[in-house]
Amino acid sequence: MARAHIGGSTITPCTEFAAYEDFTKIFKTKVANNETERNSAYALRYQIYCIENQFENPADFPDEREQDDLDERSVQGIVMHRKSRLVCGTARLVLPKEREDEPEGTFFALCPHADLLPEASTAEVSRFSSSKVLKRQCELFPDTRRFMEQSPLLPYLTVSLIAFTLQEAVRNDITHLCAIMKPSLMRLLGQFGVHFLPLGDLVEHHGRRQPCYVPMNKLLIDMAREHPRVWEIATDYGRIFEEEKEQAQVA
Length: 251
Description:
Layout: E1 4-6, H1 20-26, E2 27-31, H2 35-52, E3 74-81, E4 87-94, H3 106-110, E5 122-130, H4 132-138, H5 142-148, H6 154-171, E6 176-181, H7 183-190, E7 197-198, E8 203-204, E9 208-215, H8 216-226, H9 228-234, H10 239-250
Parallel strand pairs: 1-5, 5-6
Antiparallel strand pairs: 2-3, 3-4, 4-5, 6-9, 7-9, 8-9
């Protein structure tokens, strides 16, 4: 199920993100590529979606780890406080189906117009979220407190999750992103140069949600024009495209 929740509050983007290098010294955004990190992501999702927001029934997850069948073909990202190893942010990119018997993503299951997108190269943005409780715990550490003297933490968590999502989309040859998203989150991401386009009417999914999509080319062009600093962070100064060229040449 595609859901996103950023700390339950409005974010004012720091359009320059001058302190992003300082942020990366305190927090690490990465793929959860081992069992420990994946379990940390699932535990965070349980905290956000079962406890803080009650989108899911906690009784359905007795191990206190929120998971579903889509995790098997997803790239799971986490934002981790380096010193404490606390995970306070997460995002998931659900990759296209490789077999017909794999479960349908939420977008393709709920959007009547989903067939307008190229299913073989469209990935669903999901579990894009941060925890108010875990963020407050991270803020107790001296390095985070010093960082927050110069900038609020939440916009940096958000832009780091955007960077994870775009970089993994490029690495997996994704041409379109899709989601079932709150209209308010669509507007928020637009402030970072990420403009999801509505596709059809609102649908019921833990409240009224908008099926939406964005072609990767449009997203990157819009971001570079509107927020070049966010583009630099999201593409690692364009190096992500050089990595893809090198991999293509090797292949």
